[in-house]
Write a structure and sequence with these properties.
The protein has 312 residues and is of the alpha/beta class. The chain folds into two domains: 168 residues, Glucose-6-phosphate isomerase like protein, domain 1 (Rossmann fold), CATH 3.40.50; 119 residues, CBS-domain (Roll). It contains 13 helices and twelve strands. Strands 2-1-3-4-5 form a five-stranded parallel beta sheet, sandwiched between helices. Strands 6-7-8-9 form a four-stranded mixed beta sheet. Strands 10-11-12 form a three-stranded mixed beta sheet. A hairpin with a 7-residue loop joins strand 11 and strand 12. The longest helix has 20 residues. It is elongated, with a radius of gyration of 29 Å.
Length: 312
């Protein structure tokens, strides 16, 4: 029964994939909305609507749920001019549908309907109609919403992901909306949290050891970078190097004890990559370069930054 249920829903999704101009119209309607996308599911579709709201919000489309039952008791007051409405109803004939659509029209709110009933109230009154193909529910009695709700979910996801492409949403944009959990961390770039500008522990080539010590102490990262006249990173001196050469320190220059061509990252590197590099090299900080050719320093990442963000 389990395999049959999955096969039935898979066949339904294949039938659903034949999108037409109405799908394009739905995407454009949501894209052009100045306000929010209100998602309202009637009956079991309400749970699908709630999940779609989470997807739209996380991917850059302002959205919120509209409770169908509440619409009969003042809930339509949530709707405002400039919004768009995505209405989910398999039958398209629920009493709430008429109330919702009438109120939407008084505010000139475009109505996008996902329904399986081409002759329904929703189908007649909506501005954009996305019809679900006629497919059997996998419920043995043919009554429990299963196949139909799966198709609604996938169709809503298709709209959301198309908007991601159209609106040029970037990985950084997604991370800002989903900063926590593995999903957020995988999108996090070192550019989002690295130390920059005056916070960087840098000294010019030719600076004295005293200057190097002062910068290590003042910046608090346990490292100082030595840069050429063009800003390219030549090497680094760590507090470990200082301890190792403590007895001869007064007779040495930073260039004489620095690590040449140290481990670095390039702007855009993933936060997890930064942690992996530090762990493998047993170091606590990494300079971030604009590129590997010029080697100009753009930032610095410290292991404590990663731990603070919960990456580790």
């Amino acid at each position: 029964m389990g395999r049959r249920a999955i096969a039935t829903e898979a066949e339904a999704l294949w039938a659903l994939s034949g999108l037409d101009g109405e799908f394009v119209a739905a995407v454009r309607s949501v894209r052009d909305t100045k306000g929010r996308l209100l998602v309202c599911g009637v009956g079991r579709s309400a749970s699908i609507g709630a999940k779609l709201v989470a997807t739209f919000v996380a991917t850059g489309t302002p959205a919120c749920s509209l409770n169908a039952a509440d619409t009969l008791h003042g809930g339509v007051g949530l709707m405002m001019a400039g919004d768009a409405l995505l209405l989910l109803s398999k039958s398209g004939e629920a009493r709430e549908c008429g109330v919702i659509i009438r109120w939407a029209k008084t505010l000139s709110i475009p109505v996008i309907a996902i329904t399986a009933n081409r002759e329904s109230l929703v189908a007649r009154e909506a501005d954009v109609r996305l019809f679900l193909p006629v497919q059997p529910e996998v419920c043995p009695f043919g009554s429990t919403p299963t196949t139909s709700t799966t198709m609604m979910l996938v169709l809503g996801d298709a709209i959301a992901m198309t908007l991601v492409r159209i609106k040029d949403v970037t990985a950084v944009d997604l991370h800002r909306r989903v900063p926590g959990g593995g999903y957020g961390f995988d999108l996090l770039s070192v550019d989002d949290f690295m130390h920059r500008a005056d916070a960087l522990p840098l000294i010019p080539c030719g600076a004295s050891m005293e200057t190097a010590l002062d910068v290590i102490g003042a910046k608090g990262f346990g490292v100082v970078g030595i840069v050429a006249d063009d800003g390219g990173l030549l090497g680094v001196v760590t507090d470990g190097d200082i301890r190792q050469h403590a007895r001869q320190l007064s007779n040495l220059t930073p260039e004489e004890i620095m690590t040449r061509r140290p481990r670095t990252l390039v702007c855009g590197a993933n936060a997890r990559e930064a942690l992996a590099t530090m762990s493998q090299s047993r170091i606590t900080s990494l300079f971030v370069l604009g590129d590997e050719i010029s080697r100009r320093v753009r930032g610095l990442v410290h292991v404590q930054d990663l731990l603070y963000l919960g990456i580790g």
